[in-house]
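INFO  loader      accepted 1 record
INFO  loader      residues=196
INFO  predictor   begin
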Amino acid sequence: MVTILDYGINNLSSVAKAVRSLDVECEIRDQVAGATKLIIPGVGAFGAAMEHLSPLRDGIRGLADDGVPILGICLGMQLLFDASEEFGHHEGLGLIPGQIQFLPRHEGIKIPHMGWSALAFPQPSPIFEGIEAGEQVYFVHSLVARCEDPQDVTATAFHGESFTAAVKRRNVQGTQFHPEKSGSVGIRILENFLRC
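INFO  predictor   done
INFO  writer      dumping tokens
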């Protein structure tokens, strides 16, 4: 069963609606046991999210170790990393080596980054099958992932500077953008993930 994780802080309905539009059954649950695919959406602050996720940390790591496909979206992607500097230092799930840091400020560039930006693909990833470089997706964020291993970065975008837009390490993937709010491109990305 495709599980969309409800950890008390995230935006669930639009993700579930997008998945169901593909004629895929899914459940919104606050547990991860039995998930055959796990989607971790997210809107909010890293530290508060990790407080809610703390009881599920071992279960999520167990799914990752067992090869269950996992997709983190926006904050959900950031939670996959070792730690974040948002409002202090907070430990993450530790599934992808790296840190979450604030977007640097550049003259004339607004933060948070809100809106559509084009994707580039430094590494191939199955979730971007059929997606061309330059296709645009929707972002809402003030922080970005800094991967320890550049091979984990599967997509980048630009807002004052190039930043990590998507990551993949084995069966664990994440998108900084919101595929569920990115029109037909986002639906194709979700469809590709659900085929993993």
